[in-house]
Amino acid sequence: MANKIPRVAVREQDAKVRATNFEEVCYGYNLEEAQLEASRCLNCKNPRCVAACPVNINIPTFISHLVAGDLRKASDVILEDSSLPSICGRVCPQENQCEGSCILGIKGEPVAIGKLERFVGDWCLDNDAESVAKAEANGHKVAVVGSGPAGLACASDLAKMGYEVTVFEALHKLGGVLVYGIPEFRLPKEKIVAREIDTLKKLGVKFETDVVVGRTITIDALMEDEGFDAVFIGSGAGLPRFMGIEGENLNGVVSANEFLTRANLMRAYDEEYDTPIYVGKRVVVVGGGNVAMDAVRTAKRLGAEAIIVYRRSEAELPARREEVHHAKEEGIEFRMLTNPTSVIGDERGWVKGLNCVEMELGEPDESCRRSPVEKAGSDFTVECDVVIMALGTSPNPLLKRTTEGLETNRRGCIVASEDGVTSREGVFAGGDAVTGAATVILAMGAGRKAAKAIDEYIKSK
Amino acid sequence: MFKIVEKSLLAENIYKLRIEAPRVAQSALPGQFVIVRVDEQGERVPLTIADYDKAEGTVTIVIQTIGASTKKLCALNEGDSIADFAGPLGNPSEFVHLPEEELRSRRYLFVAGGVGTAPVYPQVKWLYEHGVKADVIIGAKTASMLIYTEEMAKVANLYVATDDGSYGFHGLVTAKIKDLIENEGKHYDECVAIGPMIMMKFVTLTTREYSLPTTVSLNALMVDGTGMCGACRVSVGGKTYFTCVDGPEFDGHQVDFDEAMRRQSMYRSQEAQANEKHNHKCNCF
């Protein structure tokens, strides 16, 4: 009676302690815990979890290998469809994907698929179990723009097929959003991200940092002068949005991207590093997604009183449920159905408060979420000295501006087919650069599909 | 890693470094900047390009030591390497896109202040190589703070103004602009001002009197320099722009300089602390 076992709780750092450090919140399962949790899986004949996974990982099969204690086989099954299991196991919104469709979840708690994936992924990193064979070099060169999840996945697959792959990264550090965006306490940089990248280096993938494709070198020059047969664009969606309200350029208003980049990439919280960060005493983060949660929890860890302001209700928060739960445990204040109307500053031009208005939910909008409507006369002010805008991001216009014939849509996203084919021959794209801000797993999946399409394109030439 | 192939002291606390960066040198155009990170702990510092040599694969930057990272950078010597050198970033100066004929008919006045003289040089040099000899005013507090006068004199009609009159025209650059237009009967189609924010603000106030279109290059705060952080937001004509991807050059008559100067001061207190920490660690100066 496998389903009589309750979901195995995962060990975590104590909320009070972790709210003052940047170490990982969740410790993950050990083998015994993982096998017990894995034993809850019913191994459904028509597994709904597989269909709900954006890259269709064969979940029941990897879980059954885990139950049997064959971790190599379990990891091989995952690696067939995912190249970044220890990352996706940590950051995927499982409640809307695999776990959200688990049969056990109808009456009780679903199998902790994410935590099991993480366990297997970490085992794989620890045991260097990348068992996938690498094909012989085929003499073709492919350039990958961006070292985030889409680029890494694409590079990994192409390298395994025998291509000579060079990944160009604009920043000084590899990993894209995994490094500048997602904080250490959710995704350890050295322990996980750097090791995933090392795996690629072992496959022979070359990396060049400080190369801003579009500026340092154009896509055309890569193909014409440097002999790349194809280019994959996985440059993400890095441009932060602002609200366009009064007072947004006051000192103390920053984008979540800036705040997180200072903390994560530039390590401003570490005394040894020179980059400054302005945290203030009372921080308001505007937004309800994962980035908002990351920013507010980072502010808390840096010693501020930290508040989330979101215009819809808690049910509509787009963040992973686990992050909301963790944020609450850490003492983050949530002010739902609240929308900022202007930022107020002191006589020196620094933030001293955020004017807001209460909202109520009306009819569902095109995102199928009930759209918030202002309650007349409900204006009030939240006192604060820092406002962080976490309202989403759009793709950088640089590649569009510098690559003739590269088609983009009205939101600035590159137009590409399911397989990543763009309007320019030999140029493929995937991930947030195509979809706008989405998830790590979708970007990874797009990178892999594009790798396949690139292989077919080059072979057919 | 990017090697320093040449280093020289131009004036007190102002250094010139020539860096081996073939990819950047290949693509660089006047008006663009680079992001420099001296070592693993360093900040990403935006610096305007002072010169580039495609054949040698080198890019020259001029740095005034102000913060912890710029001090560390200037403490390095020829043969040493810096961790990161990314660019060229930002848009090139608009005149590089003009048809040759139109370009040659235009009369340019460049106003350079302090360390901002360095990024003026590649612009004036580019124009000179394309058949346009511009007028250039270099301003400094005093004669010993002047930089790039010899190089500039080779490619432009040079006027020097010092606040204390120790060299050239006695007075501010704005007084020299008036002098050129009113007393020497000069006529210009465009003014380009690069220097401290306060100087650029007053240059634009002066040129407005003559309805002289004026371009300024803003040295806003930046983290990544590629459009990701939005720290470099600037109000131009009532709209918000990112200096790194929309600039760094803007219509000076539309820029909200008071806001830009206030925003520049955002991290001043933290920078002072980092500076102290750094001074405590080594005695490079």
Domain count of chain A: the total is 3
Question: How far is it from the N-terminal to the C-terminal residue of chain B, by CA?
Answer: 24 Å
- CATH homologous superfamily identity of the largest domain in chain B: Nucleotide-binding domain of ferredoxin-NADP reductase (FNR) module
Assess the beta-strand content of chain A as a share of residues.
Answer: 15-25%
According to CATH, what is the topology of the largest domain in chain B?
Rossmann fold
Name the quaternary structure: heterodimer
DSSP strand tally of chain B = 16
Question: What's the CATH first level of the largest domain in chain A?
Answer: Alpha Beta
Topology:
The complex is a heterodimer of chains A (461) and B (285).
Chain A: H1 15-18, H2 31-38, H3 48-52, H4 59-67, H5 71-81, H6 85-91, H7 104-107, H8 113-126, E1 141-145, H9 149-160, E2 164-168, H10 177-180, H11 189-202, E3 206-208, H12 219-224, E4 230-233, E5 239-240, E6 253-255, H13 256-265, E7 282-286, H14 290-301, E8 305-309, H15 321-329, E9 333-335, E10 338-345, E11 351-364, E12 370-374, E13 380-383, E14 386-389, E15 393-394, H16 398-402, E16 427-429, H17 432-435, H18 440-460
Helix pairs in contact in A: 2-4, 2-8, 4-5, 5-8, 6-8, 9-18, 13-14
Chain B: E1 2-11, E2 14-20, H1 22-27, E3 33-37, E4 45-53, E5 58-64, H2 68-75, E6 81-82, E7 84-89, H3 100-104, E8 108-113, H4 117-129, E9 134-140, H5 149-155, E10 156-162, E11 169-170, H6 173-183, E12 190-194, H7 197-209, E13 214-217, E14 233-236, E15 239-242, H8 243-246, E16 249-251, H9 257-264, H10 268-281
Parallel strand pairs in B: 8-9, 8-12, 9-10, 10-11, 12-13
Antiparallel strand pairs in B: 1-2, 1-6, 2-5, 3-4, 3-7, 4-5, 13-16, 14-15
Helix pairs in contact in B: 2-10, 6-7, 7-9
